[in-house]
Write a structure and sequence with these properties.
The structure holds 2 protein chains of 2 kinds. By secondary structure, chain A is of the alpha+beta class. Chain A is built from 9 helices and 7 strands. In chain A, the strands form 2 sheets. Chain A has a 5-stranded mixed β-sheet. In chain A, a hairpin with a 2-residue loop joins strand 6 and strand 7. In chain A, helix 6 crosses helix 8. The longest helix of chain A is centred in the last third of the chain and has 16 residues. Chain B contains 9 helices and no strands. Chain B is globular. Classes of the chains: A alpha+beta, B mainly alpha. The interface between A and B is large, with 56 and 53 residues. The complex binds FE2/S2 (inorganic) cluster.
Chain lengths: 260, 245
């Protein structure tokens, strides 16, 4: 049964242009389409009519790259928990429904066009400390460095972050705490991440503030929006690493820029 | 407030000392809010326990007088404690105002539609509730500590000051509402403070908060008990038998 939908889409010609919602009718939507496929069809119709298609970000379309990300009916990545926009199917909506589609809204994520935002602030947070410093060369033997099972699991859970920015989008404060905490935790749980562990938290938090993200007030909206179900527990861990660094990290390590 | 002091995105700050960097960071300010908040929770629980001596079965006026006079006997320690409390409130409020300003600046244009999935009434009322509570604290100190505007205030006779003060129906309402707001504030704060400090074990249900609920209920009921009992006439007239030295 094809569905008929009304789309209220945010259209904005460029970073400095004023944006507004515009309504489009989408008839003949298959419930088995993904949300992005539905937008593709709408865009083909717009193009055929000589209108400018709706710009939106996407890449892998299988929930692993983090490029897609839309505010759908007030929820980041739409109504399904643990699902990216590209993995969301139209059967999650009702026939005849009006769907509001907006870009992530945050000072740190300027709108480039329509539904595309610039998320390079997240990249700069990673550049500030989301790395380990090792000698390059041959890969070390797989079992040379024992990692306790629970630490490996916790690191993997945090490393599931695809950097889509849904946590920022869903947070009433537009805070990047869950993203930053996930990046701090996935290295900090592993032995290779220990040498720079506390410096990492200091530098990444400092960068997060510089990028004009808000702060964490533990609303919990981020973990609900996260397509990878990363827990707000990571934020407590980031804060603890940050505090430990503030209290005990020698001054020269706090100041040193880049790799140690 | 502090937003204008932030440099543009991506611009490095001039080098600053450790305390300055801590206070400037969003995590640092939250840590300050958590620590001062936990101090505040300890204070309100102690304060509430003191109030409940109103229900002493025999000679309650004497019990309350001895308690009040005992606090006064601490002398300089009392002033240190008062100074500490004021400092905690100031730090808590200043950090909250600055963080709120930053958080607002971080989302300047609102969504056309936004759903809330997990945030509680407690979390969403922290700012408004906090402002109301600060106003209440000022009124309460004027009313019950200094006796300004109180109908029959007698220094060091808290039993009768409370008993008579709560014959004003509006005061009963105000104190009960404030007790409820405090409970709501602690429903979020008593849970969030430990999480902010990273003192909670990882959990499958990080939003659960049994201890915070217990604290919130205890504090609300404990503080509401005295005005409600006074309004119901539970406190019989009584006098201070012996003025404590
Ligand atoms: S397009 Fe890659 S995660 Fe959605």
């Amino acid at each position: 049964m094809p569905m008929k939908l009304t789309l209220r889409v945010w259209r904005q010609a460029g970073p400095n242009a004023d944006g507004a919602f515009r309504e489009y009718q989408a008839n003949d939507v298959s419930p088995d389409m993904s949300f992005l496929e539905m937008l593709d069809v709408v865009n083909e119709q717009l193009t055929a009519k000589g209108e400018v298609p709706i710009a939106f970000d996407h890449d892998c379309r299988e929930g692993i790259c983090g490029m897609c990300g839309l505010m759908i009916n007030g929820s980041a990545h739409g109504p399904m928990p643990a699902t990216t926009t590209c993995q969301l199917h139209m059967r999650s909506f009702a026939d005849g429904e009006t769907i509001t589609i907006e870009p992530w809204r945050a000072t740190a994520f300027p709108v480039l066009r329509d539904l595309c935002v610039d998320r390079s602030a997240l990249d700069r947070i990673v550049q500030a400390g989301g790395f380990i410093s090792v000698q390059t060369g041959n890969a070390p033997d797989g079992n040379a460095l024992p990692v306790p099972k629970q630490d490996a699991d916790a690191a993997m859970d945090a490393a599931a972050c695809i950097g889509c920015g849904a946590c920022v989008a869903a947070c009433p404060n537009a805070s990047a705490s869950l993203f930053t905490a996930a990046k701090v935790a996935h290295l900090g749980f592993l032995p290779q991440g220990q040498p720079e562990r506390y410096r990492r938290a200091l530098k990444m938090v400092a960068q997060m503030d510089l990028e004009h993200f808000g702060g964490c007030t533990l609303f919990g909206e981020c973990q609900e929006a996260c397509p990878k179900e990363i827990s707000i527990d990571t934020i407590g861990r980031m804060n603890k690493d940050y505090l430990t660094g503030m209290l005990f990290e020698p001054a020269e390590n706090q100041k040193a820029a880049g790799a140690g | 407030m502090s937003v204008s002091t932030l440099p543009a995105a991506g611009v490095a700050r001039p080098p600053a000392g450790r305390v300055r960097r801590f206070w400037d960071s969003s995590v640092g300010k939250k840590v300050v809010m958590a620590v001062t908040g936990i101090g505040g929770i300890a204070f309100v629980i102690a304060h509430m326990a003191g109030n409940l001596q109103m229900f002493t079965p025999t000679a309650p006026a004497q019990a309350m007088h001895t308690y009040a006079a005992g606090l006064r006997k601490l002398g300089p320690l009392l002033w240190i404690a008062r100074g500490g409390l004021v400092a905690m409130v100031v730090l808590h409020v200043v950090a909250a105002l600055q963080l709120t300003a930053r958080n607002r600046a971080a989302r300047p244009s609102a969504y056309g539609r936004k759903e809330h999935h997990t945030s509680t009434w407690g979390a969403r009322s922290m700012r408004v509730g906090g402002v109301v509570l600060v106003g209440f604290i000022v009124f309460h100190i004027l009313d019950m500590t200094l006796g300004v505007g109180h109908p029959q205030f007698v220094h060091l006779d808290p039993y009768n000051n409370l008993r008579l003060g709560f014959q004003r129906w509006w005061a009963v309402g105000l104190y009960v509402v404030a007790a409820g707001l405090l409970g709501l504030h602690l429903f979020h704060g008593a849970w969030a403070s430990w999480r902010t400090l990273g003192l909670r074990r990882p959990s499958d249900r990080p939003l659960h908060r049994n201890i915070a609920i217990a604290i919130a209920v205890l504090v609300t009921l404990g503080f509401a008990a005295v005005p409600v009992a006074a309004a119901l006439g539970v406190f019989a007239p009584d006098v201070v038998q012996e003025v404590a030295p």
